[in-house]
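Batch job 17 of 40 flagged for manual review because the log was empty.
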Amino acid sequence: MIRAYKFLMRPTVGQEVTLGVMLRDHCSLYNGALQERRDAWRHASKTSVRYGMQSAQLKGIRAFDPESQGGWSFSSQQATLRRLDKAFAAFFRRVKAGEAPGYPRFRGASWFDTVVFPKDGDGCRWNSTPNDPVTRVRFQGIGHVKVNQHWPVVGRVKTVSVKREGRKWFVVLTAEQDQPEPLPETGSVVGIDLGIASFLTDSNGVHVPNPRHGRRAASRLEAAQQALARFPRVRRDKRTANHRRAVEKVAALHGKVRRQRLDHAHKTALALVREHDLIAHEDLKIRNMIRSPAPKSDPAREGAFLPNGAAAKAGLNKSIKDAGWGVFLTILHAKAESAGREVIAVDPRNTSRTCPQCGHIAAENRPTQEKFDCVSCGHQAHADTVGAVNVLRAGLVRRTANTA
């Protein structure tokens, strides 16, 4: 089992500058490799450049430019080239599937914020001073950096990554560990229905309120972004101190909302995992749910369009993103695996339109967002509770089918 740990680093002023230089040089390597692939495809009879070819050139690149490329870990530079290779693999996969391709883009200095060391001991060393009461991590070309380790690392450390978030630096570890002992069985099963009014509703009728962290911070974010927009567009090295402070303020507000959303997702998922042996949820296609509606041309007027509800859909999309369903489901599956619980995703179609009493399916069964009133048998309940009950039943049927 692989588990990730994230700790805040406490670099000195000099180490912080060197960390920034390391990110800049890896970003330059990434952009140079991307440019080589573009040029080979456009000007060399559509020749494809692979990771193996670019990795073989690293030794020559380090010898040619020892100041910016020769001082860093060879393995970390290979990981940067693999990152580009994965971007192209995803691009070709989307092209083959008929999706929006999204060709890999060049990275700016502020966009490239992570350097990966594929193996502990190769260019980096976690807990490099074990006899020191202060935990430190050592990086090639930087030295021993203090780490605020607030949680013990269990297992063997496999990879070490450096990540910059705003003005803070973090070290991210992945550790291989044995499967932990499962939690004692509770005999309880539950279905959950994710929503906007309530973050989730379970099959027992319990509603978890939606914190709406993004909406609460919207006014402060708007003011900070308006202040940032007043500065003219200039090169990065020409920006003033006030411009940098405005950028940092926007980043800090976004970072706070992100941390609040993660905290809520962790606590909600942990409560579900501790209380239930089986958790069923809808297999939501969130990316499809937040797509903008297609424009509708007006046949009576050339170049004009008919109303398509884009404004209302934009508000719904913003609320779905603010809820963070995808992050929550990812955390739920990870915690369930660690605790020995079972999580089942079921087809979401008609879960909130099917009567749990008589099984009648009709859109009229849900006259409002919250009310469920079966037109066949008259059963009344909260619409989200009905959806959670139907999700649980579908999950139990699927589990029985899998065991059979």
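Reviewer: the log was empty due to a logging misconfiguration, but the result itself is present. The two ends are 27 Å apart (CA to CA). Unflagging and moving on to job 18.
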